[in-house]
């Protein structure tokens, strides 16, 4: 078999047969444009292994526009992980060989040259990379090739001509496929043309304006047929390759593959020497005459449309006048019907007025007869309003009392501070004096007596401010305080000491009665006691609830009860904590302090402050305790 026959057989098996002859291709058959291998870098002619021809000029021309775009991007080199580029250029396969890198079963390539097992390049540096790093690397490599592109089609080849079609913008794409279109509606001048100018506009993501990347003078007769689809096309496409989608398949303009049209014609001549019948001259003339008739009919239709439009424009005034007259007549008819409706409504309203007048007269008679219950209701309403005002006043008084109670509680809490002891749960001190929870010993008798005296004084003050009589009255007297039990029956003694004595059960019963008073105060304000033996914890909880609230504390009201003052010569109770009174107390207590009877750890401005018991501090006299 000769090389020519081999060429014909290879072309037939590799390419499909187009349905349109080259001389029959027109722009009405063009339905879409696609771009492949979009790149703004220059194409090297040495890598292709052939000279630059006129068909490749649009791809290899180095224009200032391409240089401007190329300065903003980097070149993406091809991978050489399988074979050497030098050996590939030296032993380039012929156009008849299949562009594949696979091996045959006998260990030889399709050229018959023995090939060894090639070692793949190492990819160790990619094995430990994270997927995110690989994705970022891939985006860096391909980011400069992702362009925003669109194209325009021109007829005539002049730069001043208006485009017959403008495509949409494909953003960030290297192989854009634009939407299909139809040029039949552009008129016969465009639909019958077989030449056009395709301008591809592109810009990078950082650029501001679009520039012409490819300007291609397309002649539909000189295009190469690729196939109905690209699924069976295995050859690499050049950079910035333009694919034209016609009605019978995909075409492009490159010379790497032999044309399928010449091969098909040569095959037909080789198979059969007979001449196939084509369209006759008469048929072609009939088609031409039919086309002329169609064009004449279209011109006549356009002329008739213009004449009709002119006639309508001349009769516009008459039509407007007639339309206005018709509208006036409609308005008159509407006004007449509205007048009739208004008359009917007026008669209905008059009847309704008479009915309402009679109804009003009846209601007046009913109201006059029911004036007595109304007066009683007004009196009741007045009483209700007074009651509401009284309730509001009582509520306001309760709120003010609550605020005053908060202030009093804060004052009592500052006078008798109850603080917890560190590292001892549920153990508290009152004025820095520790008080156990109903578990007493003889080692701190003076401290216990002082703490119980402070507690009795605080409970007594709280009962007075809460307007609550204690079931077990207290006799607060510092560390020599007493408590009474007038409730229990069958007791030989009614007064019990709140300080340790020689008779332990009397003291313990007195502490129990004090805890019962605290429980009574807590129940008065709505609190529940968890353990009655916890004297200071329960008292601390009570003060915490009494001082709880939002807002600022109310100020103390000025003035007092004049009958309780006892005259001007008697010192006022409100002056006991004044600066002059404190100074006077300090002057009186200085000799006793020098004699060693009173400790010197009190703060100068706090006459009620107290320090932990000292060895020489005496809270009470032993004679009074023995007498109790």
UniProtKB/TrEMBL annotation:
UniProt keyword Coiled coil, yes or no: yes
GO BP annotation list: SNARE complex assembly
GO molecular function terms attached to this record: SNARE binding
Domain of life where this protein originates: Eukaryota
GO-annotated cellular components: endosome; lytic vacuole
Ranges where the record places region Disordered: 83-135, 351-385, 560-628
Sorted UniProt keywords: Coiled coil
Biased composition (Basic and acidic residues): 351-364, 373-385
Biased composition (Polar residues): 97-108, 571-581
Protein name: UV radiation resistance-associated gene protein
Provenance organism: Cyphellophora europaea (strain CBS 101466)
């Amino acid at each position: 078999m000769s090389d020519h026959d081999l060429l014909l057989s290879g072309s037939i098996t590799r390419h499909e047969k187009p349905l349109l002859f080259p001389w029959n291709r027109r722009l009405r058959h063009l339905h879409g444009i696609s771009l492949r291998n979009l790149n703004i870098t220059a194409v090297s002619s040495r890598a292709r292994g052939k000279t630059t021809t006129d068909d490749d000029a649009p791809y290899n021309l180095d224009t200032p526009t391409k240089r401007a775009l190329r300065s903003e991007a980097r070149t993406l080199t091809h991978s050489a992980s399988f074979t050497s580029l030098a050996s590939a250029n030296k032993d380039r396969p012929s156009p008849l060989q299949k562009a594949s890198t696979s091996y045959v079963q006998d260990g030889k390539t399709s050229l018959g040259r023995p090939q060894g097992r090639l070692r793949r390049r190492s990819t160790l540096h990619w094995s430990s990379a994270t997927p995110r790093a690989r994705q970022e690397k891939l985006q860096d490599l391909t980011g400069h090739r992702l362009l925003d592109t669109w194209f325009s089609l021109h007829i005539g080849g002049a730069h001043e001509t208006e485009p017959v079609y403008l495509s949409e913008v494909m953003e960030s794409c290297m192989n854009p496929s634009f939407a299909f279109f139809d040029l039949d509606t552009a008129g016969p001048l465009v639909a019958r043309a077989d030449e056009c100018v395709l301008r591809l506009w592109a810009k990078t993501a950082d650029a501001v304006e679009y520039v012409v990347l490819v300007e291609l003078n397309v002649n539909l007769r000189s295009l190469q047929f690729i196939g109905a689809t690209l699924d069976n096309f295995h050859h690499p496409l050049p950079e910035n390759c333009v694919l034209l989608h016609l009605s019978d398949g995909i075409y492009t303009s490159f010379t790497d593959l032999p044309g399928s049209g010449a091969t098909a014609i040569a095959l037909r001549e080789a198979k059969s020497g007979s001449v196939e019948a084509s369209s006759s001259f008469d048929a072609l003339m009939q088609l031409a005459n039919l086309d002329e008739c169609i064009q004449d009919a279209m011109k006549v239709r356009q002329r008739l449309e213009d004449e009709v439009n002119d006639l309508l424009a001349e009769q516009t005034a008459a039509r407007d006048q007639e339309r206005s007259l018709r509208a006036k007549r409609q308005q008159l008819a509407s006004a007449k019907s509205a007048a009739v409706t208004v008359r009917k409504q007026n008669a209905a309203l008059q009847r309704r007025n008479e009915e309402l007048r009679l109804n009003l007269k009846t209601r007046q008679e009913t109201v006059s007869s029911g004036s007595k219950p109304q007066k009683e209701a007004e009196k009741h309403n007045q009483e209700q309003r007074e009651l509401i005002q009284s309730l509001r006043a009582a509520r306001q008084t309760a709120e003010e009392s609550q605020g005053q109670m908060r202030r009093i509680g804060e004052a009592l809490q500052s006078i008798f501070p109850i603080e917890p002891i560190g590292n001892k749960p549920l153990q508290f001190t009152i004025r820095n004096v520790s008080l156990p929870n109903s578990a007493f010993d003889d080692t701190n008798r003076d401290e216990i007596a002082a703490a119980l005296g402070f507690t009795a004084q605080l409970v007594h003050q709280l009962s007075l401010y809460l307007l609550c009589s204690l079931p077990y009255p207290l006799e607060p007297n510092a560390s020599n305080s007493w408590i009474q039990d007038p409730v229990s029956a069958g007791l030989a003694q009614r007064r019990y000491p709140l300080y340790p004595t020689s008779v332990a059960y009397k003291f313990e019963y007195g502490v129990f009665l004090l805890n019962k008073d605290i429980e009574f105060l807590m129940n008065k304000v709505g609190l529940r006691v968890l353990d009655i033996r916890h004297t200071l914890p329960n008292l601390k909880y009570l003060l915490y609830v009494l001082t709880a609230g939002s807002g600022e504390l109310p100020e103390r009201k000025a003035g007092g009860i004049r009958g309780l003052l006892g005259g001007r010569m008697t010192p006022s109770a409100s002056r006991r904590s004044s600066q002059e009174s404190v100074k006077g107390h300090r002057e009186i207590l200085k000799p006793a302090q020098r004699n060693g009877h009173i400790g010197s750890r009190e703060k100068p401005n706090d006459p009620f402050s107290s320090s932990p018991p000292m060895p020489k501090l005496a809270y009470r006299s032993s004679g009074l305790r023995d007498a109790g």
